[in-house]
UniProtKB/TrEMBL annotation:
It comes from the Eukaryota. Its main location: mitochondrion. Keywords: Acetylation, CF(0), Hydrogen ion transport, Ion transport, Membrane, Mitochondrion, Mitochondrion inner membrane, Transit peptide, Transport. The lineage of its organism: Eukaryota, Metazoa, Chordata, Craniata, Vertebrata. This is ATP synthase subunit b. GO terms for cellular component: mitochondrial inner membrane; proton-transporting ATP synthase complex. It comes from Oncorhynchus mykiss (Rainbow trout). Component of the ATP synthase complex composed at least of ATP5F1A/subunit alpha, ATP5F1B/subunit beta, ATP5MC1/subunit c (homooctomer), MT-ATP6/subunit a, MT-ATP8/subunit 8, ATP5ME/subunit e, ATP5MF/subunit f, ATP5MG/subunit g, ATP5MK/subunit k, ATP5MJ/subunit j, ATP5F1C/subunit gamma, ATP5F1D/subunit delta, ATP5F1E/subunit epsilon, ATP5PF/subunit F6, ATP5PB/subunit b, ATP5PD/subunit d, ATP5PO/subunit OSCP. F-type ATPases have 2 components, CF(1) - the catalytic core - and CF(0) - the membrane proton channel. CF(1) and CF(0) have multiple subunits.
Length: 233
């Protein structure tokens, strides 16, 4: 009730009704006589003074009873007895029950904190694993680039080998053509030489042959004399 009054006072007194509502307190506020919140007295103090809340409560109770809005009967006494028992039980056993509830709450909070810490640890490990996988992915990109370069080098090597093979084949065919032309030229030259020699031999008469032989013998004798003179000198 006290928290609700605070929220209500905040909504009605704030110049901006759209302002964010503050968070509710974890523990209840102060009360008077066990059930009346302290905020009610603080709200009435500026307008009614210190005795204003008590006068307002007594007047309101008198009005309700005088107008018979509420009639006192046997149920009233039963409710008073039950309220007395409840108040006594709350004051007697309330601190122990509150301590037990706080202990249970602390255990639940501790378990929730352990679960949270475990989840944070697992998430942090997952983040580290994700970063490692991203780093590995970057390394795979470098590996793929290296493989692409190797494949490109292999393709270039194969292309150059084919070009070299084609060049060798063309060179061999050109060498064959050159050798064939050289063979044809040599055979033509030999055929021409044999034909000329045959015609020359055929055109020489026996007299010319004898004269040529005699001329050769004479030349050999002259050469022999010259060689003999050189030897004697």
């Amino acid at each position: 009730l006290g928290a609700g009054l605070v929220q209500l006072a905040h909504l009605h007194t704030s110049p901006n009704s759209q302002a964010p509502v503050p968070a509710l307190p974890e523990k209840g506020g102060k009360t008077r006589h066990g059930i009346i919140p302290e905020e009610l007295f603080q709200i009435l103090y500026p307008k009614t003074g210190v005795t204003g809340p008590y006068v307002l409560g007594a007047g309101l109770l008198t009005y309700i009873l005088s107008k018979e809005i509420y009639i006192i009967n046997h149920e009233t006494f039963a409710a008073a007895c039950m309220g007395t028992v409840i108040i006594y039980g709350v004051r007697k056993f309330g601190p122990d029950v509150a301590a037990f509830a706080d202990k249970l709450n602390e255990e639940k909070v501790q378990k929730a904190q352990e679960v949270k810490d475990l989840a944070m640890t697992s998430l942090a490990q997952a983040i580290q694993d994700e970063k490692k996988e991203q780093w590995r992915a970057e390394g795979r990109q470098m590996l793929f680039d290296a493989k692409r370069n190797n494949v490109a080098m292999l393709l270039e090597t194969n292309r150059r080998e084919r070009v070299h093979m084609v060049t060798n084949d063309v060179k061999k065919r050109l060498d064959y053509q050159i050798a064939l032309q050289t063979l044809h030229r040599r055979m033509e030259q030999e055929h021409m030489v044999n034909w000329v020699e045959k015609n020359v031999v055929t055109s020489i008469t026996p007299q010319q042959e004898k004269a040529s032989i005699a001329k050769c013998i004479t030349d050999l004798k002259v050469l022999a004399k010259v060689q003999q003179a050189k030897t004697t000198a």
